[in-house]
Design goal:
single chain, mainly beta, Neuraminidase, four-stranded antiparallel β-sheet, globular
Amino acid sequence: MLSGLMGIYGRLIPAGIAALVTLGLAGVPATAGAATNADASAAVTIVTLGTLPGGTYSLANAINDHGVVAGTADTAGGAEHAVRWSASHAITDLGTLPGGTYSEALGINNAGYIVGDGDNAAGDTRALRWSPDGTVTDLGALPGHPNAYAVAINDAGVVTGYAPIRAKVFHAVRWSPDGTVTDLGTAPGWTTASSSGAAVNANGAIAGDSYAVGGPSQATKWSPAGVATGLTSPNGGSSDANGISNAGVIVGQYNVTASQAHAVRWAASGTPAELGTLPGGNYSSAQAINNAGVIVGASDTGAGSFYAVRWTAGGTIVKLGVPSVDTGSWAQAINDSGVIAGYVNPPSGTSIAALWT
């Protein structure tokens, strides 16, 4: 689907996986290029999307069915900005709110509307939506709280994310197309905990999780009416949801042990199925699913690096590989044409946005 990377890196994903999204500082050329991927078990092509002029890193977080990509990149001055790559891979800096210093883009729909967050002149983090012409709109927050984070948007304009309700406690929220923001609460049994929305499908169903700060979590589904249901993991332990298809199939990961996590898929009925890892791997995470049931994410191989992977609708895992100069990769989103967006990690440690086609 059209979900994007959650802006709270590492909160729900084990440290071994979260380490992959830590950005390095070394520079790379601000150009785009293509390389045939000889490392995968299926024939694909990797296209690196490059950076902003003078920038050092970029992340592709979401892709729509027209091939337009939303993500984040640093500027020549070191500021983090939301960016958009056109279907021809031209990059556009989407900028910030007036007086703001940073922004990030996490979700995109087929009309070209992009959502994410950024700070304002007062230093508050605001949920943002960029129109196709680049105009930025502050989506607002829950009453009495200045901060909010938008993560995903569907074609009807429904947005999900999360916002604080009190100190150190967040709730999943939904912004309706008319701008109304709704507190979605938590799954049953998590009434004093936090929650967050990660993805929204065409019907308005939302996937995310309910969690205790520094503690366990449970993948959660909210119906279009806002009713929350907790999803059971294969072993009954902690789990997190990252993506949802229009059919209501949800993907994410669950903790096999305290130091090991595996990707998981929940059927529309809520039944979980483990997706496993690459051979020798300890960690995997399913980040997104398209409407053909193809899932993408990342897995390690037990050797320390993570690689972008694709699971077929039948659950077979395929390593997508990286260009020869890179040491790892991560798949973050997939559109209904099967084009995958994410990033590769050169030896420098810096992440560069990429597509697998």
